[in-house]
Amino acid sequence: MKKILFTLALCFIATGAMAQDKKTDWAQFYRYEKANAEVTAQPDAVFMGNSITDGWARQDPEFFTKNNFVGRGISGQTSSEMLVRFRRDVIDLNPKCVVILSGTNDIARNNGFIAPENTLGNIISMCELAKANGIKVILCSITPTSVFRWRKEIEPAQLIRDLNKMLEAYAKEAGHYFLNYYPALTDEKGGLPEKWSKDTCHPNLECYRTVMEPMVCDAVNKVLKTPKKKLHTAMPVE
Known about the structure:
It contains 10 helices and 5 strands; from the N terminus they run H-H-E-H-H-E-H-E-H-H-E-H-E-H-H. It is of the alpha/beta class. Strands 2-1-3-4-5 form a 5-stranded parallel β-sheet, sandwiched between helices. Helix 7 (116-132) packs parallel to helix 8.
């Protein structure tokens, strides 16, 4: 009886420790731990990002599975957290290329203020890690936002445009593909138009399917030099 009670106690302690680990796992390594272990074939692309990437994989999972793409977005994350988990969630999966979409939550100050040059530095570090491991880089512009519903005191539109200029200049200098979503997505206020977003920030399914998916498919084809590869792009929105 004592042995059984001791075993049960160990189980409770282990369960409690795991729960505590998740609470203190700042970069959220646990989020994709199981999914990463299930990746057996080399992905054509891993998508690293925040809620915009996270929501993409949730809303249109078929787009990822049919194209041999892997989504590794985590809602709310800044470039700092992405950089910390980049090895686990990108490099260890050995993709042919990585699609990096980062910076929105830095501007929103989700982890406090971070200067634009430091956001750029984090993103550059991710690109350099990818290149050092033979992974081609598709660096995306930050998608437009005219208001952060969770941080209304910040006016993000111009801040996003300024950081996008920095990202584009770096991509050109480093020889990475720059995927500029911004002109195709922005409205006159500098956010996503109402037809594509409820909050000017997060794309809906129509936005992903009709604009972003064709653009990223074209980018992957060019970077991987597979112009004849037919990718699953925009599907009719139900």
